Every structure is written in structure tokens, then in C-alpha cells.
């Protein structure tokens, strides 16, 4: 019978879901989904001082936004402390662990001596075989693993290959602290075993932990999972990832206007490849993903590539789906409050009409919201500096003439308004551009926009004439003042 693949994502809730954690979650999700398995979620909240409910919420929200669903209930590691202690009692009973009463001063002396002798094994095993009867009174011991002193510990890593550690260099690590709380090393092993995890896919900063955890598995008589340690993500310059490179929370990428589908596609290509293919649907990712295709070198984060990919996904969405994405992101972006407060059914229809002319030039949803501002702007609309410069007194007189030329147009369509504007320009022997540019500035507040006749059709007759009258009215005031 084929074993069911079970992976797990196990974040520590001490901060947001960062980009590296999101990629780890994605790799675990893809590997399990491709094999009909399960991905479990375990919140490693044993660091009680740093773990927060806000961080847990941010992690769960980030996973949900990325579309990375997990199977079963979320497991909280701290709640399993009694089970972790039970496993240690089992080790004490079988001789796989022992009580250590070494004082801090003794441990410090061991450490200094080991450093002076160039040894990596810092604890000298002074309580490995000592009789408990000789223990100092009133001292609460730690419980240590009775690790093998000779031979080697090895894993066949799915990414790193075979990795070997000499046991003489590995300490008898602490399993339970003197206050009875389990250590991270112990808790991870017990939880992975009890949750039936078959594959541990995580960052290669955990690679050295694998040796110690493998020893705990062996001491408990359990089968260790398959390990895959993936390289970390570096900045574009090859240095350790920092905030300036993009080491931000997933929520920050949502606030910058990236689509979850684009983020998934970008993350899967950070360190993993499938031929020369760059763009993957979710189904294609699931069917193609495998661990040996992950490179051993750190991946480099590239904002320009992410923007390009995001622009592709924006262009591919139909207008209804794209508007849904825009509405979904409004609570998370600084520019969203203004639009959110105006979203009537009528405005939605105008936005749907505008999106075909906007989406080809947008890299993010924030770009789209900003470029669509002319659709939902209040009158009189604000003009940017270029638009102000364009609307000279002469241009405003042209706008006043356009009001009269456009007022009779029915039905109000792009074709009908174009015919009226062209006729207006011909009658006055003006080039179409000399009419279209001030028209664009008056209607959108900018000198760039989708096709001007599409803008006219999108905004509707009443709004267009009102905006033109606003600007033509300013021209009349200016002319009177000069007279």
C-alpha cells in the first residue's frame, strides 16, 4: 500500500508571514497536492514571550490570501507540552535520555574548555552515567538526550543530497528544561511523528537541526521523515534578504497591489525550475512540482520580475474578475478608502467599462486604482501639473465650444462623441489633437488616459458635460479678470 504523503508548514507566530515562509508553505502545499496527500498547519508557539495572537492571525490571513489551504485543524504546539514530556519519560525509561544537574558555572567552564581545544561538542557528558544519588540537593535537572558518541548521523536530503555529521561533534542536547518545558528540538520531532508527517520541507537554516532531530527519532524508535532543506532567498545583490530587498510580510505585497495568483507563480520560481517555463497556472504547478528540481543555491528576489509577472496576470483577467480583485484589496491599500466609499452599482458599471483601457498599462492593483481615479473623482476634479499647464485660456475656450457641440449628442457612445468632436475640430480648422488633449485633461485631470472617446463613453453624458463646464467656467472667470 502506498504511503499517503503528509507535509506540514510550521511557522513561529513571532511576526508576519514573510516571503520566505510563504514560499516554504507553497512548496509544502504543492508537493502534497501533487501526490494526493495532505498539508498540515502547526503553529510553533512555544516561545510564549514573543508569540502573539496578532501574528497568528497575520499568518493565517496571509496563507488564506495566497490560496494555500491546509488540511484538518490547526495544531498549536504549546498545547501539546504534556505529550512532549511523555515522550521524554519514555526515553528516560529506555535509557535514551538522562537527568543532568550541571550548574551554570560548570556549563560555562565546559564551553570555554571546548572552545580552547577547538571542539564543537560543548557539553562533556558529566552526568551521562552518574548516579542520581550524587545529585546536589534542591537542584532541578534538565533532561538530555543520550546521543551516540561514535559513528555518524546522516540524512538523504531531497535537495541537499546526502549530508553527514560525525556524532563525536554533536552534543547531548537538552530535551526538557529544568522547569519542565520542552525544547524546540524535542517538540518538533514528537509533533511531526504524531501528525504522521512523511516529508519535512523547510529552509536550509534548519539543516543542522536535522542531525539532532534524526537522533531523537532513532532514540524513540521512530522512523524519521524525508527531509528537503531549501535554500534561503537573497536580495538581488546576493546578500541576505532585508526589508529593502522585499523581506516584507505577505500582507505588504497585498497592500502594494499584487495578485495572489501572481505571487504564487513568482514564489514557485524562486529556486525551482521546470525547463524554461516562467508562467504556471496553479494546476500546472501542482502537476510539475518536485523536490529534486529545487536548486541548492539561494534564490534572488527581483521586484522587476514580480511586477512584470503581476502585470501579465492583470492583463489576463476579465474585467469582472479584475474588479473583484480591486474590491477585495481596497481595505488593505492606502488609496482604497476613497473608492470603497463610492462603490455604487452605477460606479461598478463605469469601472467595468474603463478597465479594458486601463489594465494593459497597470503593473499592480494600486496602479489600476490610481489610473481609474478619473472614473470616481469628485467634481471639480483635481488636475495634475501637466494638465494644468495644458489648460491655457485658449484651451478652456475650446472646452466651452465643446460643451455646445456635445450637448445634443444622442445616444452617448464612443462612436457618436468621436463624430461630434471631429466635426467640431474640422469646423474650426483645428487639429484633432489640439481638441483631444485639453478634452482629456478636463475629463481625467491628466494628460494620459485610455482612448479619449472611450473615456467619454465610460463617464456618461451628464458627468462629461459637467466636468467640461467646470473647466470652461474657470476660463470665463480668468478672461473676465483680465478684462
UniProtKB/TrEMBL annotation:
Residue ranges of coiled coil: none
Pfam families: Anticodon_2, tRNA-synt_1c
Subcellular location: Cytoplasm
Ligand binding (ATP): 243
Assembly mode: Monomer.
HAMAP family: Glu_tRNA_synth_type1 (MF_00022)
Function recorded in the entry: Catalyzes the attachment of glutamate to tRNA(Glu) in a two-step reaction: glutamate is first activated by ATP to form Glu-AMP and then transferred to the acceptor end of tRNA(Glu).
Protein name, entry field: Glutamate--tRNA ligase
Organism expressing this protein natively: Rhodoplanes roseus
Lineage of producing organism: Bacteria, Pseudomonadati, Pseudomonadota, Alphaproteobacteria, Hyphomicrobiales
Amino acid at each position: 500500500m502506498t504511503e499517503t504523503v503528509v507535509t506540514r508548514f510550521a511557522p513561529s507566530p513571532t511576526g508576519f508571514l514573510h516571503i520566505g515562509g510563504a514560499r516554504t508553505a507553497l512548496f509544502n502545499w504543492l508537493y502534497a497536492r501533487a501526490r494526493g496527500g495532505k498539508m498540515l498547519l502547526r503553529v510553533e508557539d512555544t516561545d510564549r514571550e514573543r508569540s502573539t495572537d496578532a501574528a497568528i492571525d497575520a499568518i493565517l490571513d496571509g496563507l488564506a490570501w495566497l490560496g494555500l489551504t491546509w488540511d484538518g485543524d490547526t495544531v498549536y504546539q504549546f498545547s501539546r507540552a504534556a505529550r512532549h514530556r511523555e515522550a521524554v519519560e519514555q526515553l528516560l525509561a529506555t535509557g535514551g535520555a538522562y537527568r543532568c544537574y550541571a550548574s551554570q558555572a560548570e556549563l560555562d567552564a565546559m564551553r570555554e574548555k571546548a572552545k580552547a581545544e577547538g571542539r564543537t561538542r560543548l557539553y562533556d557528558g558529566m552526568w551521562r552515567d552518574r548516579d542520581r544519588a550524587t545529585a546536589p540537593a534542591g537542584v532541578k535537572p534538565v533532561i538530555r538526550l543520550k546521543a551516540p558518541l561514535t559513528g555518524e548521523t546522516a540524512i538523504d536530503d531531497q535537495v541537499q543530497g546526502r549530508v553527514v555529521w560525525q556524532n563525536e561533534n554533536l552534543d547531548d542536547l537538552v530535551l526538557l528544561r529544568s522547569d519542565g518545558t520542552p525544547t524546540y528540538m524535542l517538540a518538533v520531532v514528537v509533533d511531526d511523528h504524531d501528525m504522521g508527517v512523511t516529508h519535512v520541507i523547510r529552509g536550509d537554516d534548519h539543516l543542522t537541526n536535522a542531525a539532532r532531530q534524526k537522533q531523537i527519532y532513532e532514540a524513540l524508535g521512530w522512523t524519521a521523515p524525508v527531509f528537503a532543506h531549501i535554500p534561503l532567498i537573497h536580495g538581488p545583490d546576493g546578500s541576505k534578504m532585508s526589508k529593502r530587498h522585499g523581506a516584507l510580510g505577505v500582507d505588504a505585497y497585498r497592500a502594494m497591489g499584487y495578485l495572489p495568483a501572481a505571487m504564487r507563480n513568482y514564489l514557485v520560481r524562486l529556486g525551482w525550475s521546470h525547463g524554461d517555463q516562467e508562467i504556471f497556472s496553479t494546476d500546472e504547478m501542482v502537476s510539475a512540482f518536485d523536490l529534486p528540481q529545487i536548486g541548492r543555491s539561494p534564490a534572488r528576489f527581483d521586484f522587476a520580475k514580480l511586477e512584470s509577472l503581476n502585470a501579465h496576470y492583470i492583463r489576463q483577467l476579465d474585467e469582472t474578475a479584475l474588479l473583484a480583485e480591486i474590491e477585495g484589496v481596497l481595505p488593505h491599500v492606502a488609496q482604497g478608502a476613497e473608492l470603497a466609499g463610492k462603490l455604487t452599482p452605477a460606479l461598478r458599471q463605469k469601472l467595468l467599462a474603463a478597465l479594458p483601457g486601463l489594465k494593459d498599462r497597470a503593473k499592480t492593483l494600486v496602479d489600476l486604482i490610481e489610473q481609474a481615479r478619473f472614473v470616481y473623482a469628485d467634481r471639480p476634479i483635481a488636475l495634475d501639473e501637466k494638465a494644468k499647464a495644458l489648460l491655457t485660456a485658449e484651451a478652456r475656450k475650446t472646452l466651452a465650444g465643446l460643451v455646445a457641440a456635445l450637448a445634443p449628442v444622442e445616444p452617448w457612445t464612443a462612436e457618436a462623441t468621436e463624430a461630434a468632436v471631429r466635426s467640431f475640430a474640422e469646423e474650426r480648422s483645428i487639429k484633432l489633437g489640439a481638441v483631444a488633449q485639453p478634452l482629456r485633461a478636463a475629463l481625467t485631470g491628466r494628460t494620459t488616459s485610455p482612448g479619449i472617446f472611450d473615456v467619454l463613453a465610460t463617464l456618461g453624458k451628464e458627468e462629461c458635460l459637467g466636468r467640461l463646464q467646470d473647466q470652461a467656467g474657470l476660463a470665463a472667470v480668468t478672461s473676465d479678470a483680465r478684462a
